[in-house]
Every structure is written in structure tokens, then in C-alpha cells.
Prior knowledge:
By secondary structure, the chain is α+β, with helices and mostly antiparallel strands. The protein is 25% helix and 36% strand. The strands form three sheets. A seven-stranded mixed β-sheet has the order 5-6-2-1-9-12-11. The protein has a four-stranded antiparallel β-sheet with strand order 7-8-13-10, with no helix packed on it. A two-stranded antiparallel sheet has the order 3-4.
Amino acid sequence: MNKILFVLIAIAICCSSCFQVIEEINVRNNGSGDVTLTLNFSQSKTKLASIMLLDSVSGYKVPSKTDVQRKLNETVEYLRKSEGISNVKKSLDFNNFIATISFSFNDVSNLNNLTDDVMKSLKVKNVNQSSFVYNKNQGSFSRSYVYTTDAKTEYNKLNEDAKSVFKSAAYTGIYRFENEIATFNNKLSTVSKSRKAIMMKASVLDLINGRVNISNKIQLTK
């Protein structure tokens, strides 16, 4: 899901700035829910403000504010036309360099293939695959993440300056539920005190190189 904001990572590559990708999925007992995807460059906002005034850095064209807004608008328009997706919103803060897309879904199954479809609409190659399953009768939620070497191949095409961006880049995935979490099977997971939320953190570089897997099977209490 975080790949929906992939186009904005181009800013980080151009500007040699650290960034955070945050994926939040709230699932209700009936299988509907909400998603919020955030790309946060705020730790490098001073540097980014200066870089955005330039045409190119380290051989990469720096996207203008208009370029970024246009790509984000294209993503939003595509989501609005997607089956089972509603309440699509976007936020783009150029003072702190934080971009957010949020939307609601009728059923967890609506999330499957959504990333691939959005990336194809933007003519950007998707480099990983995720699928989601929620069984409301059993109270179980699972995310299957399949690593492909495409991510590493695309990464290896970058110059050394661009590669350095990913050294401190971080991914955070947060899932929230109405019932408490009984069990989970990913060792990267941390459960909240309420036991109604679970978080996974990973280095983006580890994801690119296939050193971590963000698949998880979560069983809820009934």
C-alpha cells in the first residue's frame, strides 16, 4: 500500500533527504475500514526547501510543487474511481514536506490489487506485492507480502547519492481493530497497551533487499 505514494519518493532521491513511510489501516468488525498513507520528509524540511528551488541535483530532475501536486491528484482521481473505495482525501504540506492520502474501503478485499492498478495508471513500475484477507466469522486478519527482486534491481540503477537516501529511510505499518489482538506471527510486531492495535517497523533498505518480511497473521478475540 505504501507504494501508492511511490511517486513522491522521487523528491527524496533528488534531494538526498531521509524520509518515513507510514501505513495505517483501521479494520472494523464487518470488514470495512480506513487507510491513511503518509510520506514524511519533515526531518529534512530546511534542506528540501532549498533544494526545491533548483532544477536538478546529482543528475536527477527536482520535481516542482506543481509536478508533485499533479501526481498526487492523479492518484486521488484513480482511487475515487476504484471499486469499494470512498471518502478519498489528500494533504500536501510544503512547509513541513508531509504528503498524506486517506480513503475508506467497503471490504478488506478492496485493497487487493489496488496498488498495482494505481501504479499502472501512473505509468510507474510496482516493485512488491501485498494481499489482504479478513475473515469476520473467525476474526482473523492477514497481510501477505511477497518480496520480488524488482525492488533491488530498481535500487541498483540509482547513483550513489540517491542510494544514500535509503540508509535512514523507515517504514511503519499500523493496524487497528475494534476487538483485542489475541495472537500474531510476525516478530517485528509490537502490540499496544489496549491490545487493539499492532505496529511493525522496518528499514526501507531492508525491505528493498528482502532482509525483512512484513507479512502478518493476526487473530482477534471474539
